[in-house]
Every structure is written in C-alpha cells, then in structure tokens.
C-alpha cells in the first residue's frame, strides 16, 4: 500500500509471542524494551522563560517607589471593579471608548442653548431671573482654508513671532439673537444686546 522510499524495520518480538495474545501487558512489555528517546525541553517553556527574563529585567529598571505606585494603582482598579459589580476593569482604555471621545471632540460647529440665571452671565447684574443663553460649540476642521494652512506654516517657521494670530478657524456667532431684558434684585430694568447667538459658523 505504501510506495514511499522510506523503509520500516520490524520490531523485535519474542518467539513465544503469538498473534492471539495481544493483551495490554504484552504491549507494555514490548514498548518498554524500546530504547528511550532523548528528551528536550518544550518550546513553550523556553518562550515562557524568555518572557520572564524580559519582565524581570524590566521590573529591575523601576525604583521601589514606582513599583509601589503601580501596585497601588492596580489594587485601586480592582477594588473599583469589585464595588461596581465584580467585573475586572481593563488596564488600558478600549478602542471603542477612544473612538467615542474622538467623535465627541470633532463635532461640527452648531448652535446650543442653556437656561441660566442673569447673575451667572458674569456681566455684573444681580438678578434671579433666568434667560435662555444660546452659544456656539464644536470644531471647524472641515472649514480649514489655504489661509489657515499658510498661517500655521509661517508660525512654525517663526516668521510670525510676536503677533497673536489664530491659525485655524473658530466656531463663533455669525448673528445674534434679540435683545434680552430683565429686572435685577433692586427692581431696576436692564436690556442687554448681543447676548445670545442666533447663527453659528467657522470664522
């Protein structure tokens, strides 16, 4: 059945052994008569020992204080995980959370609103009345023009040194809402113009 060039030599068997007596005892005695092959350490153990040597040399480069800080940080993470439900916290942030933060940082310029008191506006008025404050929020990465790129290059080459210039567009109001009127804490009437944004854009 086999036509290969490799030749197999029959195993030595005793003349008293017959084909019918193929029990486990005879097979174990015949296998024990075979010469033992030389043993060698598994590759997994060699790789494991090399990793251990690398980690040990890495830990030797740290000071005792740095190792204590590392251990305390790991213990704190573990205790937080056990208090929050017993799930282990990842040592490094996941790629999904990084992408979510990147998307949050690169939201386009848009108009938002917030209900605040007049005193919180920081204009020096004391009043408990609330107003709707509209503001512009977001980035302007898509609105970068040749002017912005050239200005950034001039600043990096230190051709423009002392002037305070902005080398990228900013999300700012293009138009303002109607004037806002209110009474202060002393029943005095005030009107403030250009308080809330009406339209936002990259300028």
From TrEMBL:
Cellular component GO terms, alphabetical: extracellular region
Biased composition (Low complexity): 9-39
Disordered: annotated span: 1-47
Any one biological process term the GO annotation gives: nervous system development
Pfam families referenced in this protein's UniProt entry, alphabetically: TGF_beta (PF00019)
Tree of life domain: Eukaryota
CDD domains linked: TGF_beta_Neurturin
InterPro entries: Cystine-knot_cytokine (IPR029034), GDNF_fam (IPR043401), TGF-b_C (IPR001839)
Keywords (A to Z) from UniProt: Disulfide bond, Growth factor, Secreted, Signal
Predominant localisation class: secreted
Residues covered by the TGF-beta family profile domain: 98-203
Subcellular location per the Swiss-Prot or TrEMBL entry: Secreted
Recorded family membership: Belongs to the TGF-beta family. GDNF subfamily.
Quaternary assembly: Homodimer; disulfide-linked. Interacts with GFRA2 coreceptor and RET: forms a 2:2:2 ternary complex composed of NRTN ligand, GFRA2 and RET receptor. Also forms a 4:4:4 tetrameric complex composed of 4 copies of NRTN ligand, GFRA2 and RET receptor, which prevents endocytosis of RET.
Function, as annotated: Growth factor that supports the survival of sympathetic neurons in culture. May regulate the development and maintenance of the CNS. Involved in the development of the neural crest. Might control the size of non-neuronal cell population such as haemopoietic cells. Acts by binding to its coreceptor, GFRA2, leading to autophosphorylation and activation of the RET receptor. Heparan sulfate-binding is required for signaling.
Protein name: Neurturin
Organism: Oceanites oceanicus
């Amino acid at each position: 059945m086999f036509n290969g060039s490799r030749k197999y030599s029959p195993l030595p068997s005793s003349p008293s052994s017959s084909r019918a007596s193929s029990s486990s005892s005879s097979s174990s005695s015949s296998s024990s008569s075979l010469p033992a092959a030389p043993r060698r350490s598994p590759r997994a153990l060699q790789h494991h020992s090399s990793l251990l040597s690398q980690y040990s040399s890495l830990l030797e480069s740290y000071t005792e204080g740095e190792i204590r800080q590392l251990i305390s940080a790991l213990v704190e993470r573990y205790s937080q995980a056990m208090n929050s439900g017993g799930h282990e916290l990842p040592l490094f942030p996941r790629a999904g959370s990084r992408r979510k933060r990147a998307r949050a940082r690169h939201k386009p310029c848009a108009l938002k609103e917030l209900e605040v008191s007049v005193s919180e506006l920081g204009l020096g008025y004391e009043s408990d009345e609330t107003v709707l404050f509209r503001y512009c929020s977001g980035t302007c990465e898509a609105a970068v023009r040749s002017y912005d790129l050239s200005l950034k290059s001039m600043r990096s080459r230190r051709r423009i040194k002392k002037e305070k210039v902005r080398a990228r567009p900013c999300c700012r109001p293009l138009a303002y809402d109607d004037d806002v009127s209110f009474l202060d804490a002393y029943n005095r009437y005030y009107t403030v113009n250009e308080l809330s944004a009406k339209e936002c854009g990259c300028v």
